[in-house]
# Entry
Amino acid sequence: MAKHTEYENKTEEILRPIAEECGVEIYDVEYVKEGPDYYLRAYIDKEGGVNIGDCETVSRALSDALDRDDFIPDAYILEVSSPGLGRKLTKDRHLEKSIGEEIEIKFYKPPEGMKSKEISGILKGYDADHITAETEEGEMTFDRKQVAQIRLALDF
# Structure
């Protein structure tokens, strides 16, 4: 298992009771390097959305718990926030909640027969290997290995 995956899983395990106590759910956890710095990001959500107070409460409790456990040897910056309106759909549970929603899909390279590396549509379904969306061209199914990113579309 990759180091970042191990850190994300352990953080999520530590965060689970904190989130429950604070009345929020864990949307995602990521450990990434950006430039010279490492970031440990916890995304939280709740019905009606989270506010700055929710993020602050969870951040303080998570920071204390991480300091006690101290399993990440690198220096990192802890961030706790909402996943936002245009949230990334990285896990099956995210896709499940988003069926019927408008999404934007970015591909590593244009799928066969397409000129663009991006497409938008309504998420119709998914499985371990495929994503299905209703697009302007009709219902299309894509190999998940081709997908670089899926996120909810922002509609202003």
